[in-house]
Every structure is written in structure tokens, then in C-alpha cells.
Specification:
62% of the residues lie in helices and 0% in strands. It has 212 residues and is mainly alpha-helical. The model has no long low-confidence stretch (mean pLDDT 93).
């Protein structure tokens, strides 16, 4: 498994290569939460269209989403794909948010308790829960996605069959518990993962993925 030195070297290499990413792309904490659900199995550009529809309809608010008819909510978020399923997931998440007392109530809860509660929400898996915890609640929780798994496996830092919780624990046990660091690190991995290896002079994969 990767050492602290290897993980920090990789982070520094990514940062030098791509520069600060200033993530998450959302204008409010609620938008981040909604985006974390809508981005499941789709590209962010589609999420932006769905979020824009919600804003125009005055629906980027937990109480309004809770009160909205499922069919109307599904139509608004249609660009994000799987819109009927995601409409239900958004309603479950917004109900959890309201019943938890909103940010005023949820912000007081310890991270482990908050995460366990989020994982009980129908349609919220570990990656979605951790994205919400990191980007909306600024908790020191590392988000593991397909880009992270692929990069670490390519560098032979992990096997390609490690379970989610093992990889999350790897980052959280070897790096300082700093939400800003986790935010930037994850954003850089996503940026790197979206780049494509090519013969073009500007390709940066070989520079980042050389032996650690």
C-alpha cells in the first residue's frame, strides 16, 4: 500500500502540473449536495443544465424539492440522466436534511455520525456521501472515485480490487486531516483522470505517473 511519502509526492506532482483547481463547482452548500446526487453516472456538464433548470424554477431549496411533485422534479433534472431515479434520491436527501435540522443542526454532528446517517439515505452510497461531507460540510473525508482507483493502480500503489473503505482509510490515515488538502487532492485527481494520454507535446500523464 502507498506510503505517506508517496501520497504526498503524488499530490505535489499533480499540483505542480495542473495548479489549484478551486473545487467544488457549486455556488452554495445546497447546490453542492444536489450536484453530488445528480453527478452519479453522468458528466458534470449535464449536471449544470439540471441545476440551472432547478434554479430557474426556484427549486434549488430542500423544502421546495420536498414539496415538488416527483414528475415535475424529474422533468427539471432530465439532463442529468436517470431522472426518475435521481428525483427520488433528491427527495430522500432533502428530507434527511430537513429532518436533521438543516445546516444548523447537521453541522453540530460528529463526522462519523454524520456519515453513518448519510449512508442510510436511500440512493446515497459512500462516494456520494463523502463528496457531500467534504465539499458541503468541509469534513476531512477523502472521496474515492474511479479516477483515484485507476491512478493508484497505474502507479502500483494499490491493487485494482481494493474495496472503497480500504482506499478511503489509506488517504485518511496517511495524510493530515485537512479538508482543504483532501478537496484539492481529489480535484486534481479528477482533472488528471479527465486528461487523455496522447502523443501531443502537451500530454502530462507521463510526467505525473512516473515512478514514485
Amino acid at each position: 500500500m502507498a506510503s505517506k511519502r508517496q501520497l504526498m509526492t503524488l499530490y505535489q506532482r499533480l499540483l505542480r502540473t495542473y495548479g489549484p483547481q478551486d473545487w467544488w463547482p457549486g455556488e452554495s452548500r445546497i447546490e453542492v449536495m444536489v450536484g453530488a446526487v445528480l453527478t452519479q453516472n453522468t458528466a458534470w456538464v449535464n449536471v449544470e443544465k439540471a441545476v440551472s433548470n432547478l434554479k430557474q424554477a426556484g427549486g434549488l431549496d430542500p423544502d421546495r424539492i420536498n414539496a415538488m411533485r416527483p414528475g415535475r422534479l424529474a422533468r427539471l433534472i432530465r439532463p442529468s440522466g436517470y431522472y426518475n431515479v435521481k428525483a427520488g434520491r433528491l427527495k430522500h436527501l432533502c428530507r434527511w436534511f430537513s429532518e436533521g435540522g438543516g445546516f444548523a443542526g447537521l453541522d453540530r454532528r460528529p463526522t462519523d455520525e454524520l456519515r453513518a446517517s448519510l449512508l442510510k439515505v436511500k440512493g446515497v452510497g459512500p462516494e456520494t456521501a463523502d463528496a457531500i461531507l467534504l465539499y458541503a460540510f468541509e469534513r476531512p473525508v477523502f472521496v474515492i472515485d474511479a479516477y483515484t482507483r485507476r491512478l493508484l493502480a497505474a502507479l502500483s500503489l494499490v491493487r485494482d480490487d481494493e474495496v472503497y473503505e480500504t482506499l478511503r482509510a489509506l488517504f485518511e490515515s496517511r495524510l493530515p486531516a485537512d479538508p482543504a488538502l483532501f478537496n484539492e487532492y481529489h480535484a486534481l485527481i479528477v482533472r488528471h483522470g479527465k486528461e487523455r494520454c496522447s502523443d501531443a507535446p502537451g500530454c502530462r500523464h507521463c510526467h505525473v505517473e512516473k515512478r514514485l
